[in-house]
Amino acid sequence: MELAKRVQSLTPSSTLAITAKAKALKNEGLDVIGLGAGEPDFNTPKFILDAAYKAMEEGKTKYTPSGGLPELKQAIANKFERDQGLTYHQDEIIVTTGAKHALFTLFQVLLNPGDEVIVPVPYWVSYPEQIKLAEGTPVFVEATEENEFKLTKEQVEQAITSRTKAIIINSPSNPTGVMYTKEELKAIGEVCLQHHVLMISDEIYEKLIYGDEEHTSIAQLSNDLKENTVIINGVSKSHSMTGWRIGYAAGPEKIIKAMTNLASHSTSNPTSIAQYAALAAYTGSDEEIEQMKEAFQERLEKLYEWIIDIPGISCVKPKGAFYLFPNAKEAAIGCGFESVDDWVKALLEEELVALVPGSGFGSADNVRLSYATSLDQLEEAAKRIKRFVNKHS
Ligand code: PLP
């Protein structure tokens, strides 16, 4: 039987593919170091586990409203007010089965066939596929390494056509870890307002920012910008809760209402128990989040130094998330490989270090390293990569 056209061109997630290959080698008993992970390596904090357990014991195991528990929506609204000074009412928020499904639902309610969404390259792997699944057209615009992987307002202006419906802003970014400044966001925001382009601000790494940098949401910069932005966020990365699948979107009521209608016919609601866990996350102490952040920062500082010390590798220093996205083209060519993809493959086979090739993110010269693993493992991985490069040069 022939499958539907909409899934025939779907490409499987490249991050999951490399993780699966690394796992298979590990199962053969090999000492593989996987730097492909897109999730924190810490346990979910205990007070959150306790809240979920209590919810189960109290029988809170039934359907909830499709858009999420009112008390969780209120806790999310309070978080917006507290952290970003943004006021959202409950009918401007939907709780979803992870931030990924918030994005999926958003594209479904937003796009008609042929509508365009501007996607900065490098991009998180699911954006283009989700846009295509909604019969939209991803319009790729390359954010150059020279401009620290960030789009300029001129690039945005050039990419806008009469079909442009939205633009994605992911700051801090997966895979690059870079973050837009207030001024950069303001400039892009002005262009979007002029051309009636909705801003989709994916802020899933909002809590993982290092040094003195502070997170800015484009929605914070003016009331007009807020009214033309949908913020996407969730507890996966901030509270090490990837498996719980709780994310959310906040934005204009009309959009959120349509998303809630669609959710009522697809997921019904995000898992009730996980919603109680997320409620605890947003009403409890941030102490453990801070500890995780400190651990990530230490790893970033060290790994960055180790990586740029390898011949043929350069790297824009990230300000957030938990990834490095170095350019490895010179190293790959110097080692006699035709592409960075081939170099990554040989590195896994010979030195048992799993990186994610940048081609999956639209940047074939780069590789993504996740530092969501212990310092010891990171040090050993960097040593192996260096040995591999030296051996082949
Ligand atoms: N957005 C970005 C940029 C991500 O990296 C991820 C996860 O990897 C998500 C959204 C989705 O997060 P989740 O569905 O776990 O909430």
From TrEMBL:
State the Gene Ontology BP annotations: amino acid metabolic process
**Pfam families attached to this UniProt entry:** Aminotran_1_2 (PF00155)
Instruction: Give the Aminotransferase class I/classII large domain ranges.
Output: 31-385
Q: What is its EC number?
A: 2.6.1.-
The alphabetized UniProt keywords are: Aminotransferase, Pyridoxal phosphate, Transferase
Q: Does the keyword Iron-sulfur apply?
A: no
Q: Tell me, what is one Gene Ontology molecular-function annotation carried by this entry?
A: transaminase activity
Highest taxon above the source species: Bacteria
Cofactor names from the entry are: pyridoxal 5'-phosphate
State the family it belongs to. Belongs to the class-I pyridoxal-phosphate-dependent aminotransferase family.
Protein name, UniProt field: Aminotransferase
Tell me the organism: Melghiribacillus thermohalophilus
Q: What is the lineage of its organism?
A: Bacteria, Bacillati, Bacillota, Bacilli, Bacillales
